[in-house]
UniProtKB/TrEMBL annotation:
One of its GO terms (molecular function) is oxidoreductase activity, acting on paired donors, with incorporation or reduction of molecular oxygen. It comes from Streptomyces liangshanensis. This is LLM class flavin-dependent oxidoreductase. GO terms for cellular component: cytosol. InterPro entries: Bact_Lucif_Oxidored, Luciferase-like_dom, Luciferase-like_sf. SUPFAM superfamilies: Bacterial luciferase-like (SSF51679). Pfam families: Bac_luciferase. Gene3D superfamilies: Luciferase-like domain (3.20.20.30). Residues 8-257 form the Luciferase-like domain.
């Protein structure tokens, strides 16, 4: 069995071919798609976070709304950029969303990627201290978040509080038991995957990673997953970690599918620079008739290594079409691969 969910960037644009013309369209349709995905038997509804962009940016209101409208599906992020986050306030928001959903939150976080504006985190009031880099800042924010989510008291209570306090030091509220074990790190390199394992975070690996050795994308990603699992075992964690990969996958079963994605069948990995110092490899898009798609996905080493597959969806094509995309995979592809 493999968990299968969708990952939406939540794009919106006021253009003739977009069914998500406004931020309200994108948010409300995201809720509807999560409800539809649960009804189809999918396992997760995940959302990318980008600041200063016409995409999803503040995930917790959306996740809470989905949690209130659904009963089974996992809800999560892939990923939140920790350079922008106040970890204590984030712990409050995440705790609330997790409690509303009944403990279904799967929180993907990371150092982040190149953004829409230069050093956007500075506008949010954050800057690296001393000789730290922005990546160091993101990791320090992460370590604080993980500590707070353990639920131990750390804040000295006011001796004359407005409301009565429990004894001892106080923790951030609301606290959601178990959320600490449902934090995922979006690793762009083998080294950060190993770092995440040492802190007991699950691994979230997307459609791009640092090019480390020149092998095909899925081979490099599989090596990253194995390095993560080895580091997890060495760290001595008792529970089994979870690992997700994301892919653009389209089963071509209708003329509409072929019109939208038929030309992507010859897609291949790409190499590019995501910033001045980082050479990255980008994974291919899978688009084919179901029988051929099954053969192609069976050869993807990273999908085989992962327990969770997140399907990136073209959200501007609307809820009905994206429900069809998910149903195609769940019906025509997943059973043939033994995922269902």
């Amino acid at each position: 069995m493999k968990r299968i969910g969708f990952l939406s960037f939540g794009h919106w644009s006021d253009t003739p071919h977009s069914q998500a013309r406004t931020a309200a369209d994108s948010l409300l349709q995201a809720i509807d798609l999560a409800v539809a995905a649960e009804e189809l038997g999918a396992d997760g509804a995940y959302f990318r976070v980008h600041h200063f962009a016409r995409q999803m940016a503040s995930p917790f209101p959306l996740l809470a709304a989905i949690g209130a409208r659904t009963s089974r599906i996992e809800i999560g992020t892939g990923v939140i950029d920790m350079r922008y986050e106040n970890p204590l306030y984030m712990a409050e928001d995440a705790g609330s969303a997790d409690l509303i959903s009944g403990g279904r939150l799967q929180l993907g976080i990371s150092r982040g990627s190149p953004e829409q504006v230069i050093d956007g985190w500075r506008y949010f009031g954050y800057a690296p201290s001393g000789d730290d880099t922005e990546a160091d800042m993101a990791r320090k924010h992460t370590e604080v978040l993980l500590s707070v989510l353990e639920g131990k008291g750390f804040a000295r209570p006011n001796p004359r509080p407005m409301f009565a306090n429990p004894p001892g030091l106080l923790r951030v509220e609301p606290h959601s038991e178990g959320l600490r074990e449902r934090i995922w790190w979006g690793a762009g390199s083998n080294a950060t995957a190993v770092w995440a394992a040492g802190l007991g975070m699950n691994l979230m690996s997307s459609t791009l990673k640092n090019d480390e050795g020149g092998a095909p994308f899925h081979v490099q990603q599989a090596a990253q997953i194995r390095a993560f699992r080895e580091a997890w075992a060495e760290a001595g964690w008792e529970r089994e970690p979870r690992v997700s990969v994301s892919r653009s996958v389209f089963a071509l079963t209708t003329d509409q599918d072929r019109a939208y994605f038929g030309n992507d069948g010859d897609s291949a990995d790409q190499i590019g620079n995501i910033d001045a110092t980082t050479r990255a490899i980008f994974g291919r898009t899978y688009a084919a008739e179901p029988d051929l798609l099954v053969k192609q996905l069976a050869e993807d080493e990273a999908i085989a290594e992962a327990d969770t597959l997140l399907l990136t969806v073209p959200n501007q094509l609307g809820v009905d079409y994206n429900s069809h995309v998910l149903e195609n995979i769940l019906t025509h592809v997943a059973p043939a691969l033994g995922w269902r």
